[in-house]
Amino acid sequence: MQHVSQQAYMPQLSIDCVIFGYQAKQLKVLIPKLDLAGEFWTLPSGFVYQYEDIDEAAIRILGDRTGINDIYLEQFRVFGKASRDNGRFIDRLIELNQDKLEKKRQNPTDYEWITKRFISIGFYALVDINKVIPQKTSLDATIDWYDIHELPTMILDHNDIVQEALSTLRRDLDQKLIAYNLLPETFTMKELQQLYEAIYDQPFAANNFPRKILEQNVLERLEKKFTGAANKAPYLYRLRQPSVPDSLVTQ
Amino acid sequence: MQHVSQQAYMPQLSIDCVIFGYQAKQLKVLIPKLDLAGEFWTLPSGFVYQYEDIDEAAIRILGDRTGINDIYLEQFRVFGKASRDNGRFIDRLIELNQDKLEKKRQNPTDYEWITKRFISIGFYALVDINKVIPQKTSLDATIDWYDIHELPTMILDHNDIVQEALSTLRRDLDQKLIAYNLLPETFTMKELQQLYEAIYDQPFAANNFPRKILEQNVLERLEKKFTGAANKAPYLYRLRQPSVPDSLVTQ
Fold it and tell me: Which residues are the signal sequence here (chains A, B) (predicted)?
């Protein structure tokens, strides 16, 4: 399915990207559907060139499949079960798309390369849906945002990969808010609470949420401007610039 | 350096294990030194068989190199820079140990296999030093606990891997306490604070630490038994059994 020789890539290694989008209080995932018979949905995925850092590969794969080039991506887990092999999936694809893919099976080098066991490095990102225009590639019939509660059934363990990415996103949300660039420069406590509620998929008590979030020390409260009018507008907040994270120092 | 054919392993993939030990308020790392001329320290490392889950491989590698078989291990990051190749390291090893290793270079298949670019999956664990007896293998001249402040210079990016593992350990400490199995069934707030101080390498204010840790909802305070004596003993705590973590559901 690639136009370059498979030999140019690291063998038995793939990258899968989980792109979460936030818009109008809803959390969604960007998922292409292959331009082949059989209704196959997959995460935006690809391989790593021999000369390429894995982080570079993830950015390239995301760019190629979505047209998005400047997203903050983070690796979160390797999916490495021995049972993760592409063989059955590829055979089914070829069976359903003999006109397009039969030459694949006739080329033993490419066929063996792609049907082996793969380990996959999962990357995730969180973007403002309003700021991106997903673009399908020659591989895709469609590429769409799917509500987190209504994901299609994807190939291999791709649905599990989304769940694992979601767990990581929830765990790291407090510290990663600034990297995600999801909020305007200033925002109200209510807007922030709505973002948390979409990602955690649960309501937070309005009398408790501000205290909890302020304790994390990630927010800065701005002084209200004196306007002369009755001062009933809610306080505005902005994100504190973080100190240099450990990962920049050591990686 | 392996007795089995390299072909049995996943190509260009390794696993590196960071084993933190805690004892007497100190944090240490378990590091073998190779039984070869040239003073080479490395993290306990190895490869993944084609038929083997990566988690199984990590447990096997740790067991082979340390004699420890029942440790809670967790993967934390893939080290995947294109510049991570073994070539220079292996050539230097062969140069310094011609008597033992020259046949390695004369076998092109094995030599090419081991000198390629490798990505490495980092796993870390935290153990009670009193509970383990490290054992060296035929590869090791020594295997010892090194204070976190006095680590030897290791090969490749292994020192960076330790720093990255330490960042992850600090981030996850609250939620992973029970898995690490480092504390007796019941313990005082002071003992817990000493553990945190060793891992974060900084003091915590004694009047603030209990409140912070109790807010995490990981501890259960036990009732004092009525002994008739003046009741000056400190409260004892134990760890709450966690609910089923997400990773068990999705992985």
Answer: none
